[in-house]
Every structure is written in structure tokens, then in C-alpha cells.
TrEMBL record:
Matches recorded under PROSITE patterns: UMUC
Top-rank EC class of the record's enzyme: transferase
Cofactor: Mg(2+)
Protein name: DNA polymerase IV
Family, as annotated: Belongs to the DNA polymerase type-Y family.
Gene: dinB
Swiss-Prot/TrEMBL site (Substrate discrimination) positions: Y13
Lineage start: Bacteria, Pseudomonadati, Bacteroidota, Sphingobacteriia, Sphingobacteriales
EC numbers for this chain: 2.7.7.7
Family matches, as Pfam families: IMS, IMS_C
Amino acid sequence: MRKIIHIDMDSFYASVEQRDHPELMGKAIAVGGSPEGRGGVVATASYEARKFGVHSAMPSKQALKLCPHLIFVYPRFAVYKAVSKQIRAIFQRYTDLIEPLSLDEAYLDVTNDKLGIGSAIDIARQIKQAIQDELKLTASAGISINKFVSKIASGMNKPDGLTFVGPSGIERFIAQLPVEKFHGVGKVTAGKMKLRGLHKGADLKKLTETELINLFGKSGRFFYNIVRGIDNRPVEPNQETKSISAEDTFSYDLTRFEEMNPEIEKIANVVFKRMKQYGLAGRTVTLKVKFSDFKQITRSKSSADGISELDVILDIARSLLAGIDFTSRSVRLLGLSLSNFGHSGGRTAEVYQARLFP
């Protein structure tokens, strides 16, 4: 059995800002966005802000309504990348099998750790303590025998949490897991599941593999395996991000550009957030459109310079959308992706895709 740890930094960008600016400690802050509420989205919110309902990818105008005393801080991505490298160096004391998901989270395979500690729980504790002592930041850890469970576990007791789910407890753990916590289950799919009485992992486990595939396509096979604790994906170090994308399936079909425009804005905000997490700048924006008859088209546009601003992504997405003839056709899904990156921060063959409402 593998020993896998998922480390997730606690409110990473906001915590770095509070550490570097003591006057912000204990205050509700948002990294990114606009203090006047004129535009932009929150990249990360401190835990003090989260108590008011402020969260990442939220428009700053909405964040201000929820928390009028919210302090907006301009993001310093170069600093966050530097701190991320320091965190990676701590990981490397224990293992070389490190798969980063973004600047603030990673999987570690410590089945055969460098220091011969043996206990994944002890290793996770030592990593958390080193991050606290050396960087003055906190992290949460999930420990299990596969990636799916360790990632879910790391979010169970935030901040500064440590959650272990052993082999004998995995199926029980997944049985109680709400369906919206499963990878690939977005808002629409979760609603579809709940209409069929599928609210938790235990409900999914009652269905056969064929039934799940008929209901949810190829994701059905993943659901069938995961509710039985089966996830054989290895921790894959040195991967390169080839593209970052987000998409959303709508509860009703869209027919007019005026309906699609605000949806494209939401999707672009998610892509922009992920792009900043990776510290990347792409050159190609691709629009994906799936019609009500399930026919699908894509349209792309490239720039000679790296695209690193939300407004540029939105302008390109809108121009691509405006160039499509929607006469007598309605839209059930829209998606955006950013690719053709100028640098990858050392990662070397992954396609990252996020649903709008994971």
C-alpha cells in the first residue's frame, strides 16, 4: 500500500500577506479584487473574511457587500512563488515523489521516505512543524493510501489540520462523503444526482458500474471504483501544465449572447485564478461550445505576448463567442482554456481542468 500525504496551505496568499504585514493579522483581508468594488475577483480570502462568506473567485463587489470592512491587498505572485519553492524544499527532505497541484498544495508519496521514518503521520507532523517554524505559515495535511482520500482528508479540519484515514476506514469515510465533494461533480451533476436520491457515497455504491456509466458517462466508472476505495493513480512528479481550463453546464439552454456573456465572465474568472496559482502566462485562449444537440465546437485565438490579465482573457473570449452563429441553436455548455505557456515553473505533462463549480 502506498503512503500518500496531501499538503494544502491554509489561505496561502492571505496568510503570506498577514505574515509579511503584521498590521493585517487578525483582520478580514482579500488578496486581489478592487477596494471600490468596481471589478476583479478575490484570489484568496483570510479566515477572518471567510467567516462572512467571502471566498476565492468571488467578485469584489459581492465580497464588499458581505464584509464591508474587508481590506483588499494587491497580489504579489513573485513572493508567493518564492515561498512555494521554500515549501517544496521542505517536502524534498522526505521524498522526491512530489506532485504539485498549484503553488499551495501538493501530493507526496512517502511510502519509502528518505529519512526512514516509516510513519506517514509522523512525516506529515514534521512537515507541518517545519513550515510553521521556518516560514511562519500553517498547512493542513491529509494522509491515506490513495490520492483521492488524502486530498479530501486535508480539507476536513482546516486550518492547521491533520487527518488520517487508514485502509480499514476508507469505505466508511467515502460512504458519508456528500456527492458534491467527488472529483468531476459540479453543480449540475450534483443536482442530477440528488434528484435520483444520490446524496452521499453510500448511495452511489448501491448502483452497478453499468448503471453509473449509463447515468454519468465515463465518470461513472470512476465513481464505481472510488466508493470502494479504489484509486490507483500514482503521485507523478515533474509534470508540466499544458493547459488550464474551466467549463460549466447550464441548468437551461442559452440562446442569446446577453445570456452567455455573464457565464463567460464567471468561467474566465476561474481560469484566471488557476493561472495565477500556477504563476503562468499563456498565449492561446480557446472557447468551447456544446449545443443542446450535443454537437461541440471550439474556437481559438493566440497572442504574440503572454496573456496574464483577466480583461484580456475576457476580451478574447467575447470576440470568439461573438463570431459564432447561434441562429436556431441553443447552448448547454461553455468552457474556456488557456494554453501555450511561456514557462512552467519546472513542471514537465499534465492537462489541468477544473469545473466552474467543483
